[in-house]
Amino acid sequence: MTARVFFYVQHLLGIGHLRRAATLARALAAGGFDVLLVSGGAPVDGLALGGARLHQLPPVRAADAGLKDLAQLDGTPLDEAFRATRTQQLLDLFEAEAPDILLTEQFPFGRTQLRFELLPLLEAAQDRPSAPWIVSSIRDVLRRTASPARVDEMVQTFEAFDAVLVHADPALVRLGDSFPGWPDIQARALYTGYVSDSESADVPELPVGKGEVIVSAGGGAVGAPLLHAAIAARPLTALADRRWRVLVGPNMPDRDRAALAASAGEGIIVEPVRADFPSLLRNAALSISQAGYNTVVETLCHGDRAVLVPFGTARETEQADRARVLVERGMVGAVAPGELTPASLAAAIARAWAGPSIRSFPPVDARGAAATVAALRQMVAP
After folding, report:
1. Could you give the C-alpha distances from 319 to 73, 89, 105, 121, 296, in angstroms and in order?
2. CATH of region 200-360
3. How far is CA 54 from CA 9, 51, 138, 175, in A?
4. Is the separation of the CB atoms in 155 and 185 below 8 Å?
5. CATH 3.90.1150.10: does it fit domain 4-195+366-380?
6. Cβ proximity of 25 and 7 under 8 Å
7. Rounded CA gap, 126 and 120, in Å?
8. Residues 307, 332: contact at Cβ < 8 Å?
């Protein structure tokens, strides 16, 4: 009998969480699981799911870049009626699916704004006569600004879980560096390696992007300042004679797209994000990007030299911490949150260009999708 996986994911601002979940869902479906990916964020066109199925909940997003409050897509705050309706839909769907594995992306170590529906979901899973395995799927770095009380709450909620899959390479980043509750969860934690859309062997040798500077900002919701700064920094760098390719994410507002196109001079291409991004990275002289999980993993797997400009706020420390680890190892250049100017970016480009290639370091473990399939298969094995 085919094991069924009920995989809950909620993206709030960018689309990185959903992209990584989709990569895992594809791998699990290819590995013989019947997978339902349950998405609570804004719909994303062209999401590659392979043999996995998708269910779209009534979508919510972050009310603003602070990521603290939730709203409907039109900006309307969530009221009790909306929360109750969405929670009931989620519980009814779970009951109909009767999965063997409940997989929650980030929760209980994040997405705590969704406790109104996730705690009832956990209770429903535990109350089933044949309870499913309950597993958390998290990234390499957690938000350090969680209060001690919130960390205790995460650990306490995790008592309902059988395991947490940490999608990281512990030779590079250890979860305990960003999560003080690590000693309380490590006995049920498994490092899988990073989850990559494309391992090195899967990336075709294409001529596009040879010797270019690739500038990207993920989904683009908060990426316009980086892309504008990169265009302004170009003449200040030793790479001013190279072609610069600026990739615009699908969530970037139209006014920012138009402004970028207007400011791009000769030798600068402004275009939508591309499916062959790994090939661009492999061929590029330098990558300039934010420090989101997916982009950093692709850069570590395929890039030569890189500058990271992490998105960050007083509350959101994840990207800055990820970038800091790589800077401390001498693998990339970086501009700290709040310090982005054309001059500071040009200085970071100079450091990266003078430093070693990422390829001179030991390769990171990016077999996280395959390891996830193996771990869940072992759980449901007779």
Report:
1. 25, 33, 18, 29, 10
2. 3.40.50.2000
3. 11, 10, 20, 30
4. yes
5. no
6. yes
7. 10
8. yes
- pLDDT of 202 reads 60
Amino acid sitting at position 341: T
pLDDT at 382: 81
**What sign does the dihedral 45-51-56-57 (CA atoms) show?**
negative
pLDDT number for residue 199: 54
Q: How many residues does the chain have?
A: 382
DSSP 74-119: TSPBP-HHHHHHHHHHHHHHHHHH--SEEEEESTTSS-GGGHHHHH
Q: What is the pLDDT of residues 80-124, one digit of tens each?
A: 999 999 999 999 999 999 999 999 999 999 999 999 999 999 999
Q: What confidence score (pLDDT) does residue 250 get?
A: 82
Query: 200-360: same fold as 4-195+366-380?
Result: yes
Q: Where are the domains of the chain?
A: 4-195+366-380, 200-360
Query: Low-confidence residues of the chain, pLDDT below 70?
Result: 66-67, 198-205, 220
Contact (Cβ atoms closer than 8 angstroms) between residue 280 and residue 213:
no
3-state secondary structure of 60: strand
The pLDDT assigned to 78 comes to 93
Q: From the CB of residue 11, how many other CB atoms can be counted at a distance below 10 Å?
A: 25
